[in-house]
Amino acid sequence: MAGVTHRVASGGITLHAVTEGNPAGPPLVLVHGYPDNHRVWDKVVAALAADYFLVRYDVRGAGQSDKPARTRDYRLSCLADDLRAVVDQLLPDRPFHLVAHDWGSIQSWESVTTAPLAGRILSYTSISGPCLDHVGFWLRRQWRDVSGGGAGKLLRQLASSWYVFLFQVPLLPELIWQSGLDRIWPALLQRREGVTDARRTPFQKADGRFGVKLYRANFLPRLRRPAERHATCPVQLLIPGRDNYVGSELFEHLAHWTGKLTRKELDAPHWAPLTDAGLIAEAVREFVSAQTGRRALADQRVP
Q: What is the CATH number of the domain that holds 144?
């Protein structure tokens, strides 16, 4: 079926959302990263639409959703409220499976580990997006183990995350996007990520400019004062083996923060939803099916 567009109100802003797929299938919510919008999931959605009811939306600051001017309006708590508003309107009272990439994954950890959505999320598939609180504890662990290899891990990740520091500089990242980065962005994706069909979109410049506020609003506060955050739903971690930005070391202690953890490495770059949608769809299908089977078996055992 063709996608249906929606407008969702959330805390004074309006979000653009799309539903499509099989209305009778298990609900699957997909959250995109930076500097993308909901269209980054097009190929994954096409592979899953026959069997799942799919919900995706442009996060605040991206695509056709509103773009708050204040940095504090991009805090993780606001992003979690947005996800709640989307599912409350489009999946009222229904539990759902959650899939997220990059910044979509970073922000979704907030909902996976806190009320009120934690009880409705049946499973979580995370691609290239660690919980910032978990990263904060990871950094402390490496700092204490500098002589035992922690220094090397820290230096490698800091080198990969150079852009995080750039995004803390006022106005400069916005100026770079405003000066024409949006025009060469498809070429960068093709050359560095292997996205052979990368195309410029009319939203790319704004997606890049406003999305940097995600980094400014959240990175330093969470890394300085991380909180204990435990996921209660089953978690699947998909690790692109050729990720140029998010090192697998960031997830080496993830089992401590999750109850049921499944790890799967993919022969893919960071933008796997664009380059290897089939691998993503297959991994999601297998994981969701396994959770559905376990849930049905548990229901049968209830007297």
A: 3.40.50.1820
